[in-house]
Write a structure and sequence with these properties.
14 strands, Rossmann fold, three-stranded parallel sheet, about 400 residues, elongated
Protein backbone atom coordinates (compact mmCIF):
# COMPACT_ATOMS: atom_id res chain seq x y z
CA UNK A 1 0.00 0.00 0.00
CA UNK A 2 2.84 2.39 0.79
CA UNK A 3 4.48 1.69 -2.58
CA UNK A 4 1.19 2.47 -4.37
CA UNK A 5 0.91 5.73 -2.45
CA UNK A 6 4.44 6.70 -3.44
CA UNK A 7 3.68 5.99 -7.11
CA UNK A 8 0.54 8.14 -6.98
CA UNK A 9 2.50 10.92 -5.28
CA UNK A 10 5.23 10.74 -7.91
CA UNK A 11 2.66 10.96 -10.71
CA UNK A 12 1.04 14.01 -9.14
CA UNK A 13 4.43 15.67 -8.67
CA UNK A 14 5.38 15.06 -12.29
CA UNK A 15 2.03 16.46 -13.46
CA UNK A 16 2.54 19.61 -11.39
CA UNK A 17 6.03 20.07 -12.85
CA UNK A 18 4.70 19.66 -16.41
CA UNK A 19 1.96 22.22 -15.78
CA UNK A 20 4.47 24.65 -14.31
CA UNK A 21 6.76 24.32 -17.35
CA UNK A 22 3.84 24.87 -19.75
CA UNK A 23 2.64 27.95 -17.85
CA UNK A 24 6.07 29.60 -17.73
CA UNK A 25 7.42 29.16 -21.22
CA UNK A 26 6.90 31.06 -24.46
CA UNK A 27 3.44 32.09 -25.52
CA UNK A 28 1.03 31.06 -22.81
CA UNK A 29 -2.36 31.17 -24.48
CA UNK A 30 -4.25 28.73 -22.21
CA UNK A 31 -5.13 31.47 -19.72
CA UNK A 32 -7.61 33.05 -22.13
CA UNK A 33 -9.81 29.97 -22.47
CA UNK A 34 -11.94 30.99 -19.46
CA UNK A 35 -12.16 34.73 -20.19
CA UNK A 36 -15.66 36.16 -19.96
CA UNK A 37 -14.52 39.72 -20.68
CA UNK A 38 -11.99 41.31 -23.00
CA UNK A 39 -9.07 41.94 -20.63
CA UNK A 40 -6.84 45.01 -20.95
CA UNK A 41 -3.61 45.21 -18.94
CA UNK A 42 -1.84 48.34 -17.72
CA UNK A 43 1.50 48.80 -15.95
CA UNK A 44 2.34 52.14 -14.39
CA UNK A 45 3.48 54.03 -11.29
CA UNK A 46 0.44 54.02 -9.02
CA UNK A 47 2.56 54.89 -5.99
CA UNK A 48 5.80 56.82 -5.59
CA UNK A 49 7.15 59.99 -7.14
CA UNK A 50 5.67 59.42 -10.59
CA UNK A 51 2.27 58.27 -9.33
CA UNK A 52 0.46 61.35 -10.62
CA UNK A 53 1.11 60.07 -14.14
CA UNK A 54 0.13 56.48 -13.44
CA UNK A 55 -3.05 57.38 -11.58
CA UNK A 56 -4.11 59.72 -14.38
CA UNK A 57 -3.61 56.96 -16.94
CA UNK A 58 -5.51 54.45 -14.83
CA UNK A 59 -8.36 56.91 -14.33
CA UNK A 60 -8.64 57.68 -18.04
CA UNK A 61 -8.57 54.00 -18.97
CA UNK A 62 -11.15 53.09 -16.32
CA UNK A 63 -13.48 55.80 -17.54
CA UNK A 64 -13.33 54.51 -21.11
CA UNK A 65 -13.91 50.92 -19.99
CA UNK A 66 -16.91 51.97 -17.87
CA UNK A 67 -18.43 53.91 -20.77
CA UNK A 68 -17.97 51.06 -23.23
CA UNK A 69 -19.51 48.56 -20.83
CA UNK A 70 -22.44 50.87 -20.06
CA UNK A 71 -23.10 51.08 -23.81
CA UNK A 72 -23.26 47.30 -24.14
CA UNK A 73 -19.63 46.31 -24.47
CA UNK A 74 -18.39 44.64 -27.64
CA UNK A 75 -20.31 41.83 -29.33
CA UNK A 76 -22.19 41.26 -26.07
CA UNK A 77 -19.10 41.10 -23.83
CA UNK A 78 -17.70 43.67 -21.41
CA UNK A 79 -14.16 44.92 -21.07
CA UNK A 80 -12.16 44.72 -17.85
CA UNK A 81 -9.01 46.59 -16.85
CA UNK A 82 -6.25 45.13 -14.68
CA UNK A 83 -3.51 47.43 -13.42
CA UNK A 84 -0.09 46.75 -11.94
CA UNK A 85 1.96 49.23 -9.93
CA UNK A 86 5.46 49.20 -11.43
CA UNK A 87 6.50 52.29 -9.39
CA UNK A 88 8.40 53.57 -12.46
CA UNK A 89 10.88 50.74 -11.82
CA UNK A 90 11.91 48.54 -14.75
CA UNK A 91 12.90 45.68 -12.45
CA UNK A 92 9.26 45.29 -11.38
CA UNK A 93 7.79 45.05 -14.87
CA UNK A 94 8.42 41.33 -15.48
CA UNK A 95 6.55 40.32 -12.32
CA UNK A 96 3.60 42.51 -13.18
CA UNK A 97 3.57 41.37 -16.78
CA UNK A 98 3.44 37.70 -15.76
CA UNK A 99 0.72 38.43 -13.22
CA UNK A 100 -1.45 40.21 -15.77
CA UNK A 101 -1.03 37.35 -18.25
CA UNK A 102 -2.17 34.90 -15.60
CA UNK A 103 -5.23 37.07 -15.02
CA UNK A 104 -6.15 36.85 -18.70
CA UNK A 105 -4.59 39.93 -20.29
CA UNK A 106 -5.28 39.84 -24.04
CA UNK A 107 -4.24 43.39 -24.98
CA UNK A 108 -2.40 46.14 -23.14
CA UNK A 109 -1.69 49.84 -22.69
CA UNK A 110 1.93 48.91 -22.02
CA UNK A 111 3.60 51.10 -19.41
CA UNK A 112 3.06 54.73 -18.49
CA UNK A 113 6.73 55.77 -18.48
CA UNK A 114 9.42 55.04 -21.05
CA UNK A 115 12.10 53.17 -19.09
CA UNK A 116 9.74 50.47 -17.73
CA UNK A 117 8.02 50.33 -21.11
CA UNK A 118 11.31 49.35 -22.75
CA UNK A 119 11.25 46.20 -20.60
CA UNK A 120 7.55 45.67 -21.34
CA UNK A 121 8.31 45.93 -25.06
CA UNK A 122 10.78 43.05 -24.86
CA UNK A 123 8.45 40.83 -22.85
CA UNK A 124 5.39 41.51 -24.98
CA UNK A 125 7.29 40.91 -28.20
CA UNK A 126 8.20 37.40 -27.07
CA UNK A 127 4.54 36.61 -26.37
CA UNK A 128 3.13 38.65 -29.28
CA UNK A 129 0.93 40.81 -27.03
CA UNK A 130 -0.45 43.96 -28.65
CA UNK A 131 0.11 47.21 -26.74
CA UNK A 132 -0.50 50.89 -27.37
CA UNK A 133 0.97 53.20 -24.74
CA UNK A 134 -0.66 56.53 -23.90
CA UNK A 135 2.50 58.21 -22.64
CA UNK A 136 5.79 56.28 -22.99
CA UNK A 137 7.28 58.60 -25.61
CA UNK A 138 10.79 57.22 -26.19
CA UNK A 139 11.40 56.71 -29.91
CA UNK A 140 12.28 53.03 -29.49
CA UNK A 141 9.17 51.98 -27.55
CA UNK A 142 7.13 50.99 -30.64
CA UNK A 143 10.08 49.57 -32.58
CA UNK A 144 8.69 46.02 -32.49
CA UNK A 145 5.70 45.07 -34.62
CA UNK A 146 3.33 44.65 -31.65
CA UNK A 147 3.88 48.12 -30.12
CA UNK A 148 2.27 51.50 -30.82
CA UNK A 149 2.08 54.97 -29.26
CA UNK A 150 -0.88 57.30 -28.71
CA UNK A 151 1.51 60.06 -27.60
CA UNK A 152 4.01 61.78 -29.87
CA UNK A 153 7.40 60.09 -29.98
CA UNK A 154 10.16 62.30 -28.58
CA UNK A 155 11.81 62.87 -31.94
CA UNK A 156 8.57 63.36 -33.84
CA UNK A 157 7.66 66.27 -31.59
CA UNK A 158 10.35 68.22 -33.43
CA UNK A 159 8.57 67.73 -36.74
CA UNK A 160 5.20 68.71 -35.30
CA UNK A 161 6.71 71.83 -33.72
CA UNK A 162 8.35 72.77 -37.01
CA UNK A 163 5.05 72.54 -38.84
CA UNK A 164 3.48 74.91 -36.31
CA UNK A 165 6.38 77.39 -36.60
CA UNK A 166 6.36 77.19 -40.41
CA UNK A 167 2.67 78.09 -40.46
CA UNK A 168 3.02 81.02 -38.05
CA UNK A 169 6.56 82.45 -38.33
CA UNK A 170 7.56 82.09 -41.99
CA UNK A 171 10.28 84.56 -42.95
CA UNK A 172 11.11 85.46 -39.36
CA UNK A 173 14.01 84.86 -36.98
CA UNK A 174 13.23 82.60 -34.04
CA UNK A 175 15.26 81.31 -31.11
CA UNK A 176 15.83 77.76 -29.89
CA UNK A 177 16.98 76.75 -26.41
CA UNK A 178 17.96 73.09 -26.01
CA UNK A 179 19.94 70.81 -23.70
CA UNK A 180 23.21 69.67 -25.25
CA UNK A 181 23.85 65.94 -24.91
CA UNK A 182 20.29 65.10 -23.87
CA UNK A 183 18.58 62.51 -26.09
CA UNK A 184 15.14 63.99 -25.55
CA UNK A 185 16.09 67.60 -26.17
CA UNK A 186 18.60 67.09 -28.97
CA UNK A 187 16.35 64.57 -30.71
CA UNK A 188 13.53 67.09 -30.87
CA UNK A 189 15.89 69.93 -31.81
CA UNK A 190 17.50 68.01 -34.68
CA UNK A 191 14.19 66.97 -36.18
CA UNK A 192 12.91 70.52 -35.72
CA UNK A 193 15.86 71.83 -37.75
CA UNK A 194 15.35 69.21 -40.45
CA UNK A 195 11.73 70.28 -40.98
CA UNK A 196 11.90 74.04 -40.54
CA UNK A 197 11.01 76.25 -43.52
CA UNK A 198 14.11 77.65 -45.30
CA UNK A 199 12.70 81.17 -44.94
CA UNK A 200 13.04 80.97 -41.16
CA UNK A 201 16.35 81.90 -39.50
CA UNK A 202 17.25 79.95 -36.36
CA UNK A 203 19.26 81.41 -33.50
CA UNK A 204 20.25 78.51 -31.23
CA UNK A 205 21.53 78.43 -27.67
CA UNK A 206 22.35 75.32 -25.67
CA UNK A 207 23.19 74.39 -22.10
CA UNK A 208 24.34 71.24 -20.33
CA UNK A 209 22.06 69.28 -18.05
CA UNK A 210 22.15 70.65 -14.51
CA UNK A 211 23.02 74.22 -15.54
CA UNK A 212 21.54 76.99 -13.38
CA UNK A 213 23.04 80.13 -14.92
CA UNK A 214 21.36 81.05 -18.22
CA UNK A 215 22.78 84.56 -18.67
CA UNK A 216 24.72 83.59 -21.81
CA UNK A 217 21.72 81.88 -23.41
CA UNK A 218 19.45 84.82 -22.57
CA UNK A 219 21.90 87.21 -24.21
CA UNK A 220 21.97 85.06 -27.36
CA UNK A 221 18.18 84.84 -27.62
CA UNK A 222 17.08 88.22 -26.26
CA UNK A 223 16.14 89.67 -29.66
CA UNK A 224 14.02 86.68 -30.70
CA UNK A 225 10.31 87.25 -30.18
CA UNK A 226 9.59 83.50 -30.35
CA UNK A 227 11.76 80.99 -28.46
CA UNK A 228 11.29 77.25 -28.98
CA UNK A 229 12.23 75.30 -25.83
CA UNK A 230 12.38 71.49 -26.31
CA UNK A 231 13.52 71.06 -22.68
CA UNK A 232 12.09 70.03 -19.32
CA UNK A 233 10.17 72.42 -17.11
CA UNK A 234 12.79 72.90 -14.38
CA UNK A 235 15.50 74.53 -16.55
CA UNK A 236 12.76 76.27 -18.54
CA UNK A 237 11.42 77.93 -15.39
CA UNK A 238 14.95 78.99 -14.38
CA UNK A 239 15.55 80.54 -17.80
CA UNK A 240 12.22 82.40 -17.66
CA UNK A 241 12.87 83.80 -14.19
CA UNK A 242 16.37 85.03 -15.10
CA UNK A 243 15.15 86.53 -18.40
CA UNK A 244 12.79 88.79 -16.44
CA UNK A 245 15.79 90.76 -15.18
CA UNK A 246 17.25 91.36 -18.66
CA UNK A 247 15.90 93.74 -21.29
CA UNK A 248 14.65 91.53 -24.13
CA UNK A 249 12.16 91.27 -26.98
CA UNK A 250 10.98 87.73 -26.16
CA UNK A 251 7.20 87.37 -26.35
CA UNK A 252 6.53 83.63 -26.61
CA UNK A 253 8.14 80.62 -24.91
CA UNK A 254 6.99 77.48 -26.72
CA UNK A 255 7.94 73.93 -25.76
CA UNK A 256 6.98 70.28 -26.08
CA UNK A 257 5.60 67.81 -23.54
CA UNK A 258 8.60 68.46 -21.27
CA UNK A 259 6.87 71.71 -20.25
CA UNK A 260 3.74 69.89 -19.11
CA UNK A 261 3.39 70.74 -15.41
CA UNK A 262 5.46 73.94 -15.47
CA UNK A 263 2.58 75.77 -13.80
CA UNK A 264 2.68 73.39 -10.83
CA UNK A 265 6.36 73.71 -9.85
CA UNK A 266 6.64 74.46 -6.15
CA UNK A 267 8.05 77.95 -5.61
CA UNK A 268 7.58 79.03 -9.23
CA UNK A 269 4.75 81.47 -9.94
CA UNK A 270 4.18 81.31 -13.68
CA UNK A 271 1.97 84.40 -13.50
CA UNK A 272 5.08 86.52 -12.86
CA UNK A 273 6.45 85.60 -16.30
CA UNK A 274 5.49 88.35 -18.79
CA UNK A 275 5.70 86.16 -21.89
CA UNK A 276 3.18 83.70 -23.25
CA UNK A 277 4.10 80.20 -22.06
CA UNK A 278 2.75 77.42 -24.25
CA UNK A 279 3.67 73.98 -25.47
CA UNK A 280 2.92 71.44 -28.13
CA UNK A 281 0.55 68.77 -26.94
CA UNK A 282 -1.96 66.33 -28.30
CA UNK A 283 -4.50 67.47 -25.73
CA UNK A 284 -5.94 70.70 -24.35
CA UNK A 285 -7.27 70.30 -20.80
CA UNK A 286 -9.21 73.56 -21.25
CA UNK A 287 -11.13 72.26 -24.29
CA UNK A 288 -14.85 72.98 -24.27
CA UNK A 289 -15.90 71.56 -27.64
CA UNK A 290 -15.71 68.31 -29.54
CA UNK A 291 -14.58 64.96 -28.17
CA UNK A 292 -11.88 66.64 -26.06
CA UNK A 293 -14.40 69.01 -24.51
CA UNK A 294 -16.79 66.18 -23.69
CA UNK A 295 -13.95 64.19 -22.15
CA UNK A 296 -12.83 67.13 -19.99
CA UNK A 297 -16.38 67.64 -18.71
CA UNK A 298 -16.95 63.97 -17.92
CA UNK A 299 -13.53 63.42 -16.37
CA UNK A 300 -13.77 66.51 -14.17
CA UNK A 301 -17.21 65.44 -12.95
CA UNK A 302 -16.02 61.90 -12.22
CA UNK A 303 -12.67 62.63 -10.56
CA UNK A 304 -13.03 66.20 -9.31
CA UNK A 305 -10.07 67.57 -11.26
CA UNK A 306 -9.26 68.49 -14.85
CA UNK A 307 -7.57 65.69 -16.84
CA UNK A 308 -3.96 65.73 -17.98
CA UNK A 309 -2.72 64.54 -21.35
CA UNK A 310 -1.84 61.25 -19.62
CA UNK A 311 -5.48 60.62 -18.73
CA UNK A 312 -6.68 61.69 -22.17
CA UNK A 313 -4.14 59.45 -23.89
CA UNK A 314 -5.24 56.41 -21.89
CA UNK A 315 -8.89 57.16 -22.59
CA UNK A 316 -8.11 57.25 -26.30
CA UNK A 317 -6.01 54.08 -26.16
CA UNK A 318 -8.93 52.07 -24.81
CA UNK A 319 -11.33 53.47 -27.38
CA UNK A 320 -8.83 52.91 -30.21
CA UNK A 321 -8.54 49.24 -29.20
CA UNK A 322 -12.32 48.95 -28.94
CA UNK A 323 -12.93 50.58 -32.33
CA UNK A 324 -10.27 48.47 -34.02
CA UNK A 325 -11.74 45.26 -32.58
CA UNK A 326 -15.22 46.36 -33.64
CA UNK A 327 -13.95 46.98 -37.17
CA UNK A 328 -12.41 43.50 -37.29
CA UNK A 329 -15.84 42.02 -36.66
CA UNK A 330 -17.56 39.47 -34.45
CA UNK A 331 -16.85 36.67 -36.92
CA UNK A 332 -13.13 36.99 -36.18
CA UNK A 333 -13.05 38.35 -32.61
CA UNK A 334 -13.72 36.04 -29.66
CA UNK A 335 -13.68 36.83 -25.96
CA UNK A 336 -11.71 33.62 -25.37
CA UNK A 337 -9.05 34.16 -28.01
CA UNK A 338 -5.40 34.30 -27.02
CA UNK A 339 -3.39 37.49 -26.75
CA UNK A 340 -1.26 36.39 -29.69
CA UNK A 341 -4.27 35.72 -31.91
CA UNK A 342 -5.77 39.11 -31.05
CA UNK A 343 -2.41 40.81 -31.57
CA UNK A 344 -2.16 39.56 -35.15
CA UNK A 345 -5.63 40.90 -35.93
CA UNK A 346 -4.96 44.28 -34.31
CA UNK A 347 -1.61 44.69 -36.05
CA UNK A 348 -3.33 44.17 -39.39
CA UNK A 349 -5.79 46.93 -38.46
CA UNK A 350 -3.30 49.48 -37.13
CA UNK A 351 -0.86 48.89 -39.98
CA UNK A 352 -3.67 49.22 -42.51
CA UNK A 353 -6.34 51.81 -43.21
CA UNK A 354 -7.64 52.13 -39.64
CA UNK A 355 -8.14 55.71 -38.40
CA UNK A 356 -9.31 56.95 -35.03
CA UNK A 357 -10.59 60.25 -33.65
CA UNK A 358 -10.57 60.90 -29.92
CA UNK A 359 -9.79 63.40 -27.19
CA UNK A 360 -6.15 63.72 -28.30
CA UNK A 361 -6.67 64.16 -32.01
CA UNK A 362 -8.70 63.50 -35.13
CA UNK A 363 -8.12 61.04 -37.97
CA UNK A 364 -5.11 59.47 -36.30
CA UNK A 365 -3.17 56.82 -38.21
CA UNK A 366 -0.32 54.47 -37.37
CA UNK A 367 1.79 54.03 -40.49
CA UNK A 368 4.57 51.57 -39.77
CA UNK A 369 7.76 51.47 -41.79
CA UNK A 370 11.42 50.62 -41.17
CA UNK A 371 11.94 54.14 -39.81
CA UNK A 372 8.54 55.21 -38.47
CA UNK A 373 7.80 52.23 -36.22
CA UNK A 374 4.37 52.43 -34.56
CA UNK A 375 4.32 56.21 -34.24
CA UNK A 376 1.01 58.02 -34.29
CA UNK A 377 0.31 60.45 -37.12
CA UNK A 378 -1.91 63.29 -35.92
CA UNK A 379 -1.98 67.05 -35.61
CA UNK A 380 -0.44 68.76 -32.61
CA UNK A 381 -2.28 71.22 -30.38
CA UNK A 382 -0.83 74.42 -29.00
CA UNK A 383 -1.71 74.46 -25.31
CA UNK A 384 -1.37 77.89 -23.70
CA UNK A 385 -0.42 77.63 -20.02
CA UNK A 386 -0.22 81.39 -19.55
CA UNK A 387 -1.19 84.27 -21.82
CA UNK A 388 1.26 87.11 -22.45
CA UNK A 389 0.86 90.16 -20.22
Amino acid sequence: MKKFTKIISLMITVAVIVLAVVSCGGQNTSYTSKNTTFVIGLSGPLTGGASQYGIAVENGAKMAVDEINAAGGLFGYNFSLISYDDQHDSSRVATGYASMLEKGMQVSLGCVTSLPCAEFKTLSKADNVFFITPSASNDEIPSESNGYQMCFADGNQGKAAALYVNANYAGQTIGVLYTSGDNYSEGIYNQFKDNIDPSITLVSASFVDGATDFSSQINTLKNCEFVFMPIYYTPASQFMLQAKDVSNNMKVFYGCDGLDGIDTIEGFDINTIPQEVSYLSHFNSAATEGIAGEFVTKYTAKYGTAPSQFAAGAYDCVYAIYNAMKAIGSDKISVTMSASELCDLLKAQFDGSFTFSGATGSNMKWVRSTTNYGYVDKAATKYIVKEAD
